[in-house]
Write a structure and sequence with these properties.
heterodimer, A: alpha/beta, seven-stranded mixed sheet, B: two-stranded antiparallel ribbon, 11 helices
Chain lengths: ~350, ~250
């Protein structure tokens, strides 16, 4: 049955559908509806909702529940996401699966409460200390907020690592129709490694991140790197729109991709061969999407220029990569992106 | 020949890395004995801290999670909320529990989480080599209070049992010392009572254990253990601070 839902509510409903046992959160705009929905609906579905004393505690509660072998989620925005980074590093270091939702707002610092995409670096390049990665999914609709949540839980369990949904204040707050009953299948994975009480096991399970022997720590990090490479081979995902003959390609993720799509359509009306590449996985970055030759690519973001660095790495100097961004809670509009496409087509974009 | 004394079943054969005179080894043993006596080895989940006791996961034969510095009560909350039938305890030092993890400590107590917190107070950061802790006594010399702790610039030592006694969610708080045989036996009784309260009454308990750190205090083990009974017990009085379950039963 189709129902109108906020993106934040869709995430929460899909997490319950995915069998989440616990949600640990802390209020911060613009993601608070996730907590509110969970507070109301998770207990009636046999789960645990707990408002923690801080985002630090919330992510460490996630560590406990994940370590015990249960599906668990937390969400936050802005400064709250920064506070969670310590725990995210530990989750990655202990190879624990969980889902973390970032409904991005403007920063740095307290910044603002309007939508933004300025946490790309934090999500994709690390955020916490040490060598680690998260799988990062970027939804662009309320439907995808729900679908990607299910996918995130499946991927987290499959690869034994934290998965982040990198959303923004618009996707979190806007309402769209979503078929909450028609979500992807929930996959089930055994967790023989969980610290759930030894029971009849011969050896005890230890969830830890400390390796005082540098050779052992290096081995752990490198084996994780191998896993990341495998993920990059298997899971690069993106959507293309009018790309077959496109000379000027706009690339954008999340809500910005929807604005860019409208700009691409208008460019086509004006006879410019424009197309759109929308990265869906931000880590692994869809490098394969940029294999075809183009005249130029324009990266549009709600930031001062973050994903554009990965686009440049993917393009590797084969053709020009331009950037257009608004930030601090401002949105690039259709007209602005269209203007970039036109300038790029004329060779005037720098 | 009859065995009259042996290592607890729930403690591994790995030799402790602790210094001579350190309280951790004694407390690990007490916890092991209690787990054995309660028959809970297969059902217990420990959360160990950052600090000297981080390698507790090598010594305890139950399942163990290593927590980030100060976050053990939050990690234990996550575990216990998923597995309410398990015996879950955190094991934390003074820097972990009363400095970087103060918020986690107080709020787990406020929620009356059904866990047991074992608090090792030795008035110093041990693993990093002897810096001032939140429980360092006034005048105590450490690496970061080289002239002795001056409470007017470096703060007063925190008395955690007294602070947590103000929190309604708490069921049982006791402070014991690891110095004399009598006190060590009392400490074991307190740990056992806390575990039983958790198992049978869903109760949050907090057991503080005053311990020696001869290496970082610059003392011999004998001098250090004497300090526990004298200076430390004077500032941190031993005794039961709260026992809501025991007093209900009377």
């Amino acid at each position: 049955m189709k129902q109108m839902m906020k993106g934040n509510e869709a995430v929460a409903a899909a997490a319950i559908y995915s069998g989440v046992k616990c949600f640990f959160g802390y209020p911060i705009t613009p993601q608070t509806e996730i907590s509110a929905y969970m507070a109301k609906h998770l207990p009636e579905n046999g789960g645990v909702f707990l408002q923690a004393e801080s985002e630090i505690s919330a992510i460490n509660m996630v560590y406990g529940a994940a370590g015990a072998g249960f599906r668990v989620m937390t969400s936050s925005s802005g400064p709250g996401m920064s506070l969670k980074q310590e725990g995210i590093s530990f989750l990655a270091g202990a190879d624990l699966p969980c889902v973390i939702v970032n409904v991005m707002r403007g920063g740095p610092g307290l910044g603002g409460i309007q939508p933004s995409q300025a946490d790309y670096f934090q999500a994709v390049k690390g955020g916490g200390h040490g060598d680690y990665r998260l799988i990062v999914l970027a939804p662009a609709s309320v439907r995808e907020m729900a679908e990607f949540t299910v996918r995130a839980f499946n991927l987290a369990d499959k690869w034994r690592m934290p998965v982040m949904i990198l959303s923004d204040g618009i996707l979190g707050q806007m309402m769209e129709a979503v078929e909450i009953d028609e979500l992807p299948a929930v996959e089930h994975y055994e967790k023989p490694w969980a610290a759930s009480g030894r029971g009849e096991r011969k050896e005890h399970n230890i969830i830890k991140t400390l390796y005082l022997d540098p050779e052992e720590l290096e081995r752990m990090v490198f084996s994780r790197e191998e896993r990341y490479k495998e993920i990059a081979r298997e899971h690069q995902d993106w959507e293309e729109y009018l790309c077959d003959d496109a000379e000027i390609v706009v690339t954008a993720y999340g809500i910005t991709a929807r604005i860019a799509r409208a700009a691409v359509e208008r460019a086509r009306e004006k006879g410019i061969k424009a197309g759109l590449i929308r990265p869906i996985t931000l880590y692994p970055f869809p490098v394969k999407a940029f294999e075809n030759e183009r005249r130029a690519v324009i990266c549009a973001e709600m930031s001062a220029g973050q994903m554009v660095e990965d686009v440049r790495l993917a393009v590797n100097g084969r053709y020009p990569v331009y950037f257009y961004g608004r930030t601090g809670g401002m949105l690039p509009d259709e007209e602005e992106i269209l203007n970039c496409i036109e300038r790029a087509a004329k060779g005037e974009m720098v | 020949m009859k065995t009259i004394y042996k290592k607890p079943e729930s403690i591994s054969d790995k030799p402790f890395h602790y210094c001579p005179g350190c309280g951790h080894g004694v407390v690990h043993r007490l916890i092991g004995e209690v787990i054995d006596e309660l028959g809970e080895e297969k059902n217990t989940i420990a959360v160990v801290p950052v600090g000297c006791a981080v390698m507790g996961y090598d010594y305890l034969k139950c399942d163990v999670l290593e927590a980030a510095h100060g976050r053990a009560p939050a990690v234990a909350t996550g575990v216990k909320r998923c597995l309410p039938d398990r015996l879950v305890f955190s094991y934390q030092g003074d820097g972990d529990l009363a400095a970087i993890g103060t918020a986690e400590t107080i709020h787990a107590a406020a929620r009356g989480e059904n866990i047991t917190v074992i608090f090792i107070n030795n008035t110093i950061y041990g693993m990093t080599g002897g810096q001032m802790a939140p429980t360092t006594l006034c005048g105590q010399v450490t690496q970061t209070s080289p002239c002795g702790r001056d409470p007017y610039t470096q703060g007063f030592p925190l008395r955690m049992c007294e602070i947590l006694s103000q929190v309604d969610g708490v069921s049982y708080i006791e402070r014991c010392a690891i110095d004399t045989v009598q006190h060590i036996n009392a400490a074991k009784k307190a740990i056992k009572k806390a575990f039983i309260y958790q198992r049978e009454h869903g109760a949050y308990s907090f057991i503080e254990l005053l311990c020696a750190c001869p290496t970082n205090w610059g003392m011999t083990p004998a001098q250090a253990i004497e300090r526990v009974g004298r200076e430390m017990s004077e500032y941190f009085p031993l005794g039961v601070y709260i026992d809501k379950i025991g007093s209900c039963g009377r």
